[in-house]
Specification:
106 residues, alpha+beta, Ubiquitin-like (UB roll), 3 helices, 5 strands, globular, binds FE2/S2 (inorganic) cluster, Beta-grasp_dom_sf, Ferredoxin, iron-sulfur cluster binding
Amino acid sequence: MARLRLMGRTQEQTMVTPVGSTLLNAALQLKVDWNYNCSRGTCARCRCQVLEGAEHLNEITDAEWNRMDEEEFEEGYRLSCQAVIESTGDIYAVHRPYFRSWLARG
Ligand code: FES
């Protein structure tokens, strides 16, 4: 089990979750205000920054390499639909899409 803390646009929630879940699935389960669209690594609306516990996630996927820049990975960014919890530990991630203006449209 991993202890996961997620910060959406305005809400932060914490949960204990088994390994195997993506960060996006956990965010949806927690009902955090966390946007997404494709769920397959192309739209990047689910982009987040992992501030703690990146070592508990899977390796960066091909879809992420195709969609994001290396500098983003160095800063801890992942696509939450691609980031799978693989080991026990504490993880803290913040939803940080490229553009926030569309979030306010509801
Ligand atoms: S939901 Fe589209 S990239 Fe994750």
